[in-house]
Design brief:
Layout lengths: L1 H8 L13 E2 L11 E8 L3 E8 L10 E2 L4 E5 L5 E9 L2 E7 L4 E8 L5 E8 L5 E13 L2 E13 L7 E18 L6 E16 L1 E3 L17 E3 L2 E4 L7 E9 L7 E10 L1 H16 L11 E2 L5 E13 L1
Parallel strand pairs: 2-20
Antiparallel strand pairs: 1-19, 2-3, 3-4, 3-7, 5-6, 5-8, 6-7, 8-9, 10-11, 11-17, 12-13, 12-16, 12-18, 14-15, 18-20
Organism: Cryomorpha ignava
Protein name: DUF4249 domain-containing protein
InterPro entries: DUF4249 (IPR025345)
């Protein structure tokens, strides 16, 4: 049953219900009537985009069906329509208006017999990374030693409000080095080949930072926690300057790419969704783990609609 609940939420990472209540998907009980699923994340200086699909009920093992005939409207803080999203492909709807930081947005979507769903959320102002540094270090784990890039970064957490963060690392590759062997001469030649489009990957990183792990589920026998998107709050450092440390395996990014640290300042809804989704995948396949309820904030349906802003540094 976890498989269907996860499929319901795959798409975009992303709110507060219009009613002000929070909702989680229930994995127990009888099969449910198919419902409309809306997934969408919005961020500063980017257009609005959502994906519409329909859930097949919790027990049905069939894939989700994307919806191409829906109507999707985005509303501003004063209740006015600011954007009408249009279907492009695979149930994805995009608009033309750019979102702004420190602003709230509502979404209303309708898809025939599946009815109408709605949600509301906001984009916090990005908390900047005020200092960062890198160093190469060796880490021994399970009798294996590897070279890691250690990344330290510092933020000044705004006081007086609850702040939520999602940490990610990206590697962008622009070219690769091709090796050509000439059997006649025995010589090797090297050629730099550029990709038609840069290849951008979100990377796994590890950490033993107790602040970062204070809200995670680190296994008792583990020395490091691995993640491709670690979510945490400022509960232990509200209003303070705080330094964090993570590790990236050196052989995963190479010398011909750019490494970037992304610190998302997210709404509580985005944080809750990211945290529970990561926990879902972290416990997937464990027969002894409790079923994970993935956060949803869509009124009358399933999915997520949530905002974030991001501070980026190139390492």
């Amino acid at each position: 049953m976890k498989q269907i609940a996860a499929c319901t939420l795959i798409g975009f990472l992303l709110l507060l219900l219009l009613s002000g209540c929070e909702k989680y998907l229930d994995f127990e009980g009888e099969d449910a009537t198919p419902r409309l699923v809306l997934n969408g994340a919005f961020t500063t200086d980017s257009i609005f985009s959502v994906q519409l699909s329909n859930s097949s009920g919790y027990i049905d093992k069939n894939p989700l069906n994307t919806i191409a005939y829906g109507q999707v409207l985005v509303y501003g803080e004063n209740g006015e329509i600011i954007d009408s999203l249009h279907h492009t492909e695979n149930g994805i709807y995009t608009g033309s208006v750019l979102a702004s930081a420190n602003s709230s947005y509502s979404v209303v979507a309708n898809a025939g017999s599946f009815g109408t769903v709605s949600a509301q959320d906001y984009i916090p102002v990005a908390v900047p990374i005020v200092h960062w540094d890198t160093a190469t270090t060796s880490v021994t784990e399970y009798d294996y030693t590897s070279s890691r890039l250690q990344i330290e970064f510092t933020i000044n957490d705004p006081a007086g409000i609850n702040n939520f963060y999602v940490l990610e690392v990206y590697n962008t590759q622009y070219y690769y080095v091709s090796t050509i062997y000439d059997p006649n001469t025995g010589n090797m030649t090297y050629d730099t080949v550029y990709y038609d489009q840069p290849i951008r990957d979100r990377m796994y990183f590890s950490t033993s930072d107790q602040i970062l792990l204070s809200e995670s589920d680190l296994a008792i026998d583990a020395t490091l926690y691995y993640s491709s998107g670690l979510s945490y709050s400022d509960a232990l450092f509200n209003g303070k300057s705080q330094t964090f440390r993570i590790l990236v395996e050196s052989n995963y990014y190479g010398d011909n790419g750019n490494l970037e640290l992304h610190l998302k300042s997210s709404s509580e809804a985005y944080y809750s969704y990211a945290r529970t989704l990561e926990k879902y995948f972290y416990t997937e396949g464990d027969p002894f783990a409790q079923p994970v309820q993935v956060f949803s904030n869509i009124e009358n349906g399933f999915g997520i609609w949530a905002g974030y802003s991001v501070a980026v540094v190139e390492l």
